[in-house]
Amino acid sequence: MSRIGKKPIDVPQGVEVKVNGQHVSVEGKLGTLERDCHPNMNIALEDGKLLVKRPDDARENRSLHGLTRALLFNMVAGVSEGFSKTLLIEGVGYRVLMKGKGLEFSLGYSHPITVEPMEGITFEAPKPTELKIIGMDKALVGQVAANIRALRKPEPYKGKGVRYSDERIRRKAGKTAAAK
Questions:
Q1: How far is it, in rounded angstroms, from Cα 161 to Cα 151?
Q2: pLDDT in tens, 137-150
Q3: Within-domain flag for 171
Q4: What is the Cα–Cα distance from 165 to 107, expressed in whole angstroms?
Q5: Residue 177 clears pLDDT 80, i.e. is over it
Q6: What is the CATH number of the domain that holds 142?
Q7: Is residue 88 located within the same domain as residue 38?
Q8: Cα–Cα separations (whole angstroms), residue 143 to 41, 86, 124, 150
Q9: CB 66 within 8 A of CB 5
């Protein structure tokens, strides 16, 4: 049995949830998120709690149960608090600058790389080697962070590149001088 799927989602004060069949829209202080859930899942709003129920214990329904609940929880948390990811840039001459709402990266290439924010995403660069990606859609924040990290992945010898703030790079030993 799905333990995550059975857990009710508390709707905080200031967040409005509308359930219309399989279509769920959540509105809060940061904006509005909408999602169409799988037709097998039954979504209900009962006295300030959002509940996800499944029709039977079939394998597909068990897996969809927890997934649907997690997606709805992320929607509620996103419109009330928002999500953020922090990226760190390491390497000599590697940096990021704010250019309007977008970013300009110097990552050791022959040219600077510019990145414009998607709708619902904002960037903050408190330091030239640190970048914060902020938004209310958890999946979109993670995808933008992954796209930026892919511009220059951290390499294992010196650790240069763009990495998540909580990511640890496994270092490799480099070549050593030949013994005589």
A1: 8
A2: 999 999 999 999 99
A3: no
A4: 17
A5: no
A6: 3.90.930.12
A7: no
A8: 26, 13, 17, 10
A9: yes
